[in-house]
Design a protein that fits this description.
The complex is a heterotrimer of chains A (203), B (284) and C (309).
Chain A (H helix, E strand, L loop, with lengths): L1 E8 L8 E8 L4 E5 L6 H8 L7 E6 L2 E2 L8 E4 L13 H5 L7 H6 L16 H12 L6 E5 L7 H17 L3 E5 L3 H7 L2 E4 L8
Parallel strand pairs in A: 3-8, 3-9, 6-7, 7-8
Antiparallel strand pairs in A: 1-2, 1-4, 4-5
Helix pairs in contact in A: 4-5
Chain B lengths: L15 H26 L30 H37 L1 H16 L2 H12 L2 H30 L1 H8 L4 H37 L11 H12 L5 H28 L7
Helix pairs in contact in B: 1-2, 1-9, 2-3, 2-5, 2-7, 2-9, 3-5, 4-5, 5-7, 7-8, 7-9, 8-9
Chain C lengths: L1 E13 L5 E14 L4 E5 L6 H9 L6 E9 L2 E2 L2 H7 L4 E4 L12 H11 L4 H14 L16 H14 L4 E5 L7 H16 L3 E6 L2 H7 L2 E6 L2 E7 H5 L6 H8 L44 E3 L2 E3 L7
Parallel strand pairs in C: 3-8, 3-9, 6-7, 7-8
Antiparallel strand pairs in C: 1-2, 1-4, 4-5, 9-10, 11-12
Helix pairs in contact in C: 3-4, 3-5, 4-5, 5-6, 6-7
Classes of the chains: A alpha/beta (203), B mainly alpha (284), C alpha/beta (309).
Chain lengths: 203, 284, 309
């Protein structure tokens, strides 16, 4: 169980971005999160994935706090894959930063072998996002946070990526948090959804 | 309408990358030739030959001769060779200081960053040449004085660039993600940061040369740089001041042109290397 | 107003070392926009949407060669004409506030746009005031810097830059991703309004749903070519013609959410025949022989020889 308890965050001398937020995600559960811009959705995902340390509250996995050393069992997939890969690395090096994904996973995400020797700017956004997804789908990952993962992609690539991620999440018992503006998408992929407008979080 | 009306551009006739590489090769050749020219020319031209005083440029003396009958071409090349070597040493020291402090400021952050940024700001707020003169004077002039003075005053802009780059790369999504993938700070510095910095460093270093050379010449010109006995370009130019008004233009103009060419060669070299390395322009 | 026919764009790139290669990234691209009409251009990233905009604005990089026909108001759009019209008769609504000068107050920037389009200083000032009022931007917003704008405000400022220039053709490049649905709808409505005033609007987007909210016609791009220019109502009426358009429509989460496998061919390895042939469920041998021409099927052009089935 991934639990964020009474999470609050602000930068020093600034207003609260997130306040009094509780969330619990069980393994193999797919939870949607939506709400207007400025409600701290990205901040929340960064708190849960350990990119930011909460000003108050705590993130725990099975009752032990999230460690900031070693591989983080909560992995985040960003909206812009172009920013999430080193522009000077070839694709095979990017994929192998944790461990080389197996052939089967690459095939499932339709990652063509000819891409492996290229640089990120030689791939389109949809192709690059599949690479970014493959990078974090490995046995050490127990929770995934998809922050507007497919907002920049066309409908076909969006559906393709979601099907593969959902397959993987189900077969490996991974908990998934889906952050999106797209109500139809949340309805389609999630078991339940949280509307930030209705819970106790405020700016 | 059968014809095409589009903004049709002429097919590329020259391969831009060939031109870039050619420029780099030519500039490098020119500068290497200058550095080693004193070996080939020998010292013969440096000896006074009073029978051949103040001769205008001719085939035997391409740059003419000075008031002691010394061959100006030999003197200028000796001077430039020395200047380039002094510049190389000074610019390298400067680049090392700049990179070290820039990386420290960018990665360690906090108080270290504040102190280094403060030092950079202090150096920026003082007039460049005044600082150079003061340091060089304090050390006692000479070659050592010039090198130390130039090295100590030119690292700031590179340090600023490296600091900014480090901060930017360190806060980028892919570096943050790398930490979360369990990579150590050292591994990240080695694989993510360093490859990013090296091109910056190389270009920064090359573009430091012309400054170093010009300032070396300036210090020698006003008499606190290299000793008057060495054939430095600054000293040649200082001497020529006396002769310009008497019509011996070549003793000042031609060495000056040589200095200009060398500085321009470094600049062209730097810009072309930058264009080649930067993925945004390398396809242009 | 704008007509693009058989546009081809080829880039000369460096391969390894000094060797050069030719990459054709746009092949047989067609599009036409009438006054008072919103034409959406949809497709995956890498399908040539942005390059089309760059070609119309005359801002392709130097290593691009262009062939084909582009007409603006009946006159050929040469590179010089592109430069003359850019920012005046043809305006771009940029993707994000990243395109604004971060150190300049937005009111000044919009005013400068107006002045560059040929208005005098007082007229430009008046146009800015009028436009800001129209988009419910308080007078104080003119004195804000780009980073101080909220998401919705930023959108309205960006639209303002195109409106003050009195442009006849407005190109909006991906104006909606990552925005809240309310802001998306508001932005799209602004574009629709511009069309009602008689301007031609090109809406470049990967988001079919957004496109269908306001577009009269939808041009679907695939691998650098126009596969179909459908009427907006064709989608819900089940009249769309090209198998790729149908696949896109089916893969929406509110429809079947079923993707087709594979990916768009890269410019290095384009199929000889139909560009979609390697992923198409209807493919026959005939498809692989040559690039299909535009055929009129059910009242709209489509590049598929099997589209009338």
């Amino acid at each position: 169980m991934l639990i964020g308890k009474q999470l609050a965050f602000r930068y020093p001398h600034h207003n609260w971005i997130v306040r009094n937020f509780d969330i619990a995600i069980a393994p193999s559960e797919v939870v949607g999160l939506f709400g207007p811009s400025g409600f701290g959705k990205t901040t929340l995902s960064k708190l849960l994935a350990g990119y930011l340390t909460p000003t108050q509250g705590q993130v725990t996995i099975d009752n032990s706090p999230l460690s900031d050393r070693g591989y983080c069992p909560v992995q985040m997939i960003f909206q812009n894959p172009e920013l999430a890969v080193n522009p000077r690395w070839r694709i095979h090096k990017i994929l192998a930063e944790k461990q080389s994904p197996d052939r089967f996973l690459l095939d499932a995400l339709a990652i063509h072998p000819s891409w492996l020797d290229r640089y990120p700017h030689e791939l389109s956004g949809g192709e690059l996002q599949r690479v970014a997804v493959a990078r974090v789908l490995n046995p050490a990952t127990r929770y995934l946070i998809a922050d507007e993962m497919t907002a920049m992609l066309d409908a076909n690539t969006q559906a393709l990526i979601w099907h593969r991620v959902l397959d993987y999440v189900r077969s490996h018992n991974i908990g998934l948090l889906v952050i999106s503006h797209d109500a139809a998408l949340i309805k389609r992929v999630c078991n339940r959804a949280i509307n930030l407008m209705q819970v106790g979080t405020s700016r | 309408m059968a014809t095409s009306f589009l903004p049709r551009r002429p097919a590329i006739r020259f391969n831009r990358r060939q031109i870039t590489l050619l420029s780099i090769a030519l500039c490098t050749l020119f500068l290497v030739a200058i550095v080693f020219s004193n070996r080939f020319m020998g010292d013969a031209g440096l000896d006074p030959a009073l029978t051949q005083r103040n001769q205008p440029p001719s085939l035997t003396h391409l740059f003419g001769t000075d008031w002691l009958g010394r061959d100006m071409l030999t003197r200028s090349l000796h001077g430039m060779s020395l200047s380039v070597r002094v510049g190389l040493l000074a610019a390298s020291f400067s680049a090392i200081i700049g990179t070290g402090l820039g990386l420290m400021a960018g990665t360690l952050g906090g108080k270290v960053d504040a102190v280094i940024t403060w030092i950079i700001d202090v150096f920026f707020s003082l007039p460049h040449l005044v600082l150079l003169i003061m340091i060089s004077f304090a050390i006692g002039g000479g070659t050592k004085g010039v090198i130390i003075a130039v090295a100590l005053t030119h690292w700031t802009s590179l340090a600023r660039i490296i600091r900014a780059e480090t901060l930017q790369v360190n806060s980028s999504d892919y570096v943050q993600l790398s930490y979360k993938l369990g990579r150590s700070p050292f591994w990240i510095a080695r694989h993510h940061m360093l490859p990013h910095m090296i091109p910056q460093l190389l270009v920064g270093l090359i573009l430091l040369f012309p400054h170093a050379i010009l300032h070396e010449a300036a210090l020698s010109f006003i008499g606190i740089g290299l000793s008057p006995h060495t054939p430095a370009i600054g000293i040649i130019l200082a001497e020529s001041m006396r002769n310009l008004s008497t019509g011996y233009w070549w003793v000042g103009v031609l060495p000056g042109l040589l200095l200009l060419l060398a500085v321009q060669a470094f600049d062209t070299l730097g810009e072309n290397v930058r264009a080649l390395i930067d993925p945004k322009t390398s396809q242009g | 107003m704008l007509s693009v026919q058989d546009l081809n764009i080829t880039f000369t790139l460096y391969d390894r070392g000094l060797a050069q290669k030719q990459l054709t990234v746009i092949t047989q691209l067609d599009l036409d926009v009438k006054a008072g009409e919103v034409v959406a251009v949809v497709g995956a990233s890498g399908s040539g949407k942005s390059l089309l905009a760059h070609a119309i604005l005359g801002i392709l990089p130097d290593n691009a060669q262009v062939s084909g026909k582009m007409l603006f108001k009946g006159e050929p759009l040469t590179l010089n004409r592109c430069q003359d019209l850019r920012g005046k008769a043809i305006a771009l609504i940029p993707q994000s506030i990243g395109y604004l000068d971060p150190l300049m107050q937005v009111g000044q920037q919009v005013q400068r746009t107006a002045q560059l389009s040929g208005l005098s200083r007082p007229a430009a000032k008046a146009a800015v005031d009028r436009t800001f009022a129209r988009y419910r931007l308080a007078a104080i917003v003119q004195r804000l810097y780009p980073f101080q704008l909220s998401g919705g405000m930023a959108r309205r400022v960006l639209v303002s830059t195109a409106v003050v220039s009195q442009a006849e053709l407005v190109i909006a490049d991906e104006p909606t991703p990552g925005l809240h649905p309310d802001v998306v709808t508001e932005t799209l409505n602004h574009l629709r309004e511009l069309a009602s005033e008689g301007k031609g609007v090109i809406l470049i987007t990967h988001d079919i749903e957004a496109a269908l909210q306001i577009a009269d016609r939808v041009a679907v791009f695939y691998a650098g070519t126009t596969v179909e220019i459908a009427h907006a109502q064709d989608f819900s009426n089940n009249k769309i013609r090209h198998p790729y358009t149908q696949a896109l429509w089916r893969s929406l989460p509110q429809n079947e959410f079923i993707p087709i496998s594979g990916s768009q061919p890269t410019p290095e390895a384009l199929p000889d025949g139909c560009l979609f042939s390697d992923r198409c469920p209807w493919v026959t041998q005939e498809c692989q022989l040559e690039r299909p021409p535009f055929l009129q099927v059910r009242g709209a052009p489509v590049r598929c020889i099997h589209a009338d089935r």
